[in-house]
Here is the input.
Amino acid sequence: MIGTRPGVLMPLTRANLLVHAAIGAVLTWAYWPTLVEAAARWRDDPQYSHGFLVPLFSAYLLWRNRKQLAAGTDRPRWWGVGLFLAGAAVRLAGYGLYLPWLDLSSLLICLAGWAATAGGWKTLRAALPAILFLGFVLPLPYRVQNALGGGLQRGATLVSTYLLQTFGVPAVAEGNTIVLSEMRMGIVEACNGLSMLVTFFALATGFAILVRRPWWDRLILVVSAAPIAVAANVVRITVTGALYESSHSDLARVVFHDVAGWLMMPIALVMLFAELEILRRVIVAKPRRRSAYPRPVAV
Here is the structure.
């Protein structure tokens, strides 16, 4: 089989098309119940409401790296079958250990095996960003979700209470409840900000992939997603507490349950863009030093 030059689309023979169609059909059949369950979670669980957008962005990343994908070999690399076997082992482990999140994780390993089998290391390297980004649809392990949710819930309560006191509002934290002068505002699990954290972390990662900035700027953007999401949730709770204290209970309920839910993401995005502008002004890229000698001209 004749190879191809880098950057030139690989010739897809009928045999290659049949092999890839068979792999896609087998994976779809094997993981169809898992995909249906994941779609139901995206639809019903606010924490994973971004799940429908993640595959679309991953598809865009594949399209953006189409030249790198084309640089792979047109001959199948059978070492990629080892990744398929690893994915099957992870899925069996998930069934045996009753860990549902391993089921969907094994699909990502199988997708990596598909890319490796199709075109070797170059194809796998080009497809890896899209495959890894699909990890944002994975459900958090139960223990991790409880640990993060409890910590965020307690932290949001304490910080919001401190801000309310700073603004002159009489507020005291009792557990996960903020006691105001005439009412008690409970910070329940739905208000701990975990759903905002997961969604915004995926958004910040996608933004860091697309923006043309040095790698350290991108890393700072991704790492700062967590504190920005927490800060946006604290702003929501603080504003709600201030409205309750100022005898605007009806407005506070609307803000807390409806308006703030829509405004939290724009507020977090404004913080992200502000951070990017600060990084642009603080971190100045070192200019390339030009050679004192002229380049030789080929004759």
